[in-house]
Amino acid sequence: MGKARLIAPVETMQEKYETYAAEMKRLKKALDEGFYFEAMLIDYALMEGRLRSFVYHAGLLADRNAKNLLPNKNKAREDFNGLAQRVETWKQETGQKTKGDPSIDRLSLNTISHKIFIVRTIVLWSSAMERLPDESCYLQALRRQCESLDAAALLETLDALEKWKDYRNEVIHSLMNKRLQSVQQELPEQAARGLQLARMLDQQVRLLKKGNTIRKAARLSTK
Fold first, then answer.
1. Is 119 exposed, middle or buried (0-12, 13-18, 19+ CB in 10 A)?
2. What separation in angstroms does the CA of 15 have from each of 7, 8, 64, 67, 218?
3. CA dihedral 135, 50, 127, 209 (to 10 degrees)
4. How far is Cα 79 from Cα 220, in angstroms, rounded to an integer?
5. pLDDT tens digits for 142-201?
6. Which CA distances in Å does 178 have to 167, 175, 185?
7. In Å, how far from its chain's centre is CA 169?
8. Backbone Cα Rg of the chain
9. What pLDDT, in 10s, does the model give residues 40-63?
10. Separation CA 116–CA 123 (nearest Å)
């Protein structure tokens, strides 16, 4: 049995809309009135949500409420693992491989770093890897939808998001060990920047999900 939730999740699209509207209103108020820690909390939640949505529309979640990625034995997941391995090989050959990259077969939805890795991998594959003659219907649909994305802009957004995440982590985990002046100077800009990055992600997700063509090709639920 999974760990019990401490806060009840939304159960309908109406509830989701109401929560989103209320939190966006709260975010605007926090930015306007200088409650920057609260603003960054909501920023982070928005980023997590947009990254998860990308992973969902890329066909790697069984449904909207999935707690884990598709298992490795699933055909779409197998296809993703294959393209991810191609990207990893390419990164090693071009000197872009980093020690912090997670294991492909152990990716998790529980960390934002893993979701960033998944999105980056898909974008690099679609923009830098040549099409193979035996690509599955799922991979063909994924590549076709990714062609509508601004790959360069999305990769830049992911880089900026990584830096923003690192700043946020320092604030959360070691605030009391930071110089007060430095914290106060950067917080307003970082809080506003977080919202900007979340919106940039959202623009790309809207393009990816158009028509649910990827999930249909992977024979996954679109409800």
1. buried
2. 14, 11, 14, 19, 28
3. 50
4. 14
5. 999 999 999 999 999 999 999 999 999 999 988 888 888 888 899 999 999 999 999 999
6. 12, 5, 12
7. 17
8. 18
9. 999 999 999 999 999 999 999 999
10. 11
Per-residue three-class SS string for the chain:
CCCCCCCCCCCCHHHHHHHHHHHHHHHHHHHHHCCHHHHHHHHHHHHHHHHHHHHHHCCCCCCCCCCCCCCCCCHHHHHHHHHHHHHHHHHHHCCCCCCCCCCHHHCCCCCHHHHHHHHHHHHHHHHHCCCCCCCCHHHHHHHHHHCCCCHHHHHHHHHHHHHHHHHHHHHHHHHHHCCHHHHHHHHHHHHHHHHHHHHHHHHHHHHHCHHHHHHHHCCCCCC
Return the structure tokens found at 154.
């999305």
pTM over 0.85: yes
